Amino acid sequence: MGIVQKLSFFGLMLVAFVAVPAQEGPNKDVGETVAKPRKTESPAANDANLPPIPSKLSNKSKADIPPGAPAFKVDTSVVNVDVAVLDNKGHFIPNIPRGNFRILEDNVPQQISTFSMGEAPMTVCMLIEFNARFQSFYSGTWINTLSATYGFLQTLKPEDYVAVIAFDLRTTILSDFSSDKRKAYEAMSMLRIPGFSESNLFDAMADTADRMSGIEGRKAIVVFATGIDTFSKLTYDKARKALQEAGVPIYAIGLREMVNPYYGGLPPDGINTMQAENMLKTFSRETGGMAFFPHFMGEFPTIYQALAQSLRNQYSLAYSSTNQAKDGSYRKIKVELVNPATNEPLRVTDEKGKPIKYSIVAKAGYKAPREVE
Fold first, then answer.
1. CATH number of the domain at 121-312, out of 3.50.50.60, 3.40.50.410, 3.90.226.10, 1.10.3720.10?
2. 3-class DSSP state for residue 228?
3. Ordered DSSP codes for 166-220
4. Cα torsion at 309, 310, 311, 315 (round to 10°)?
């Protein structure tokens, strides 16, 4: 597709996105699965003299502890794990009984205390790489980036929550979490002329995950990026550790393969491309997300469907860790599907009795709490 065709296609898409009304979601009770900000300790919600509600993306405030205040200790460490079981086509596999799930923490079996399955609204932060190095104004990569991000916004339902953050040299919050999609579209309209040429991927991901760690419930970061980092303060190892500790699932959509050298992008350097993809895959796998690397715009509908399958349909498990040490250590988690009678891997079949290859999507671990003095 030539640049003229691309621009025409993009122009039509923007008109369509503005004109398309909000999609209607399923008329059902979705429960308490959507990520919501922690409730403020307000005696009267309608008191006009109260201070404004802090941003859900802001760092958790640390209240001063008055002298002589009593200290409290928590004796039980409850670990929540959201699990998606997908077939080889990326479709969610429902109705797997509780007894077929097994959780290992540092290779030690754990007793599952709560178990549920359901469809939940998507609560996501769109983290978008937007810089003059890869998305120069009116370049092919600029068009692809906006087409991909606008396309994702269009798939969201009225009850879904979304925030928009862009990054180059800095991380900029364009819109806070809201189910009002007009705010997200207004934020996206700011992505027109890139500023700095740097791409501080590690800093942006770590900062966003840290801000979202204070949000309760299901949550995820959907990253649209090339996977190239040029100037971050954090190293790859430090960023990886920060994402592991934050525990926010990363769903990465790699743009590197769509960078066109003829329209302002960089040539697809084999080594750099492989490194970028490996980093995004690692971030996604260890946080319980997924990574996608499209070559063409036509692949995005399938990617959006896989995202919806993984984010909306999940098994929610919880257990009390047998390791009660409050040492702040990182503990590895492994979720398996087994036949409890034989202790062998569970065999899943389709309606015709043919075996189905499946994958388990869950976070790779968590950071244990420290003792409260």
1. 3.40.50.410
2. coil
3. EESSSEEEEEEEES-HHHHHHHHTT-SS---S---HHHHHHHHHHHHTTSBSB-E
4. 110
Residue 149 to residue 147: CA distance in whole angstroms: 6
Reference 255, options 359, 183, 151, 101; nearest CA is 151
Are β-strands 108-110 and 101-105 bridged in parallel, bridged antiparallel, or unpaired?
antiparallel
The CA distance from 39 to 59, in Å, is 15
Give the pLDDT confidence of 208-260 residue by residue, as tens digits. 999 998 887 778 999 999 999 999 999 999 999 999 989 899 999 998 776 54
Query: Taking the domains of the chain in order of start, what are their residue ranges?
Result: 78-119+313-367, 121-312
And the tokens for 84?
């998606």
Q: Give residue 188's identity as a one-letter amino acid code.
A: M
Quickly count: other Cβ atoms within 10 Å of residue 306's Cβ.
19
- Interatomic CA distance for residues 370 and 373, integer angstroms: 9
pTM for this structure? 0.69
Paired sense of beta strands 313-320 and 290-292, if any: unpaired
